[in-house]
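Session log. Operator J.P. requested a structure for one protein chain; no other inputs attached. Running the standard single-chain path with token output.
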Amino acid sequence: MLNYISAKQAALKWGISQRRVALLCAQNRIEGVIFNKNRWLIPENAKKPSDLRTKLAQQENEAKPFLKWAGGKSQLLANVHEQINSYEDFKLKKYVEPMVGSGAVLFEILATHNLESVYISDVNKGLINTYKVIRDDIDVLIESLSNVQTIYYSLSQEQRKGKYYEIRDEYNATPIKNSNRVQKATEFIFLNRTCFNGLYRENKKGDFNVPMGEYKSPKILDEANLRLVSKALQGVTIKCADFSASLDYIDENTLVYLDPPYRPISKTANFNSYTSNSFDDDEQIRLAKFIKNIDKKGAKFILSNSDPQNTDESDDFFHKLYGDYTIRKIEAKRCINSIAKKRGKISELLIYN
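Structure written below.
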């Protein structure tokens, strides 16, 4: 009789992380694994797969998110993989991500699936302009970023502070046009790589208002990865649009991943000003109605959001909103709190049909 062990047990046995084991299972690199009741079961005698994650292999094959991003989903990739592999009789031909952010899930999907079409969008004009410039004008962008990085590295810490706020002011003062799209993408990436914790936040006037971070040698230009990202984005439809505009692209062969601004889990954790228009509870409800339309089309969806029961066990906002679907609690790491000791592990929600 074949005995099975858990992903956690396999991780201890092989000396790797549990997340890495789950990802290897999702990639079908462990023979004989079974996905049962939202967890991987691994044959006790299974051999540890060889590690293909060399730096050279990554540079040659895998695009990674080009931004630091508060709320980025790199740590949830294994859970998303598990869910995709659990779908029976579903042919994944199209992928839609209408709140793309840094694209951690997007780039993983592009690297692991052969898709007929991909649609991404976001309401953040600076972000979407940057995606388009990377896709269409990578050589010019790399030259521009190289110039900015060279100048920035030559400055003293006090001069760098002045340069940061000078570029931030310019970014806020000048709207994106066809004539300055590369310059605006350069400013966007520069600010992201040098601001505090990779946050993107706008005030009510629509101005980016995140202060400068404290970094000795921020990697403003990552040429190797930007070229990989440019290659991965070829053929991808990129729109600056509300999530609802993606509905026409969705059919029964589509996987839709949605990562909205998270609902605050406490009165003091009120970071949802991703743009000047706050994504409040009314917006969460509007998103839930949109997801019902996705479900009616026969598409598969995966939604991530905060778990308000971290701080209030009686808060059943999402359980009421998504009572018709599966709601799974998963462990995630909080990393945007300015107080280091409060950057701990909490639960988040993964909701799917």
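Operator note: Residues 334 and 344 are 5 Å apart (CA to CA).
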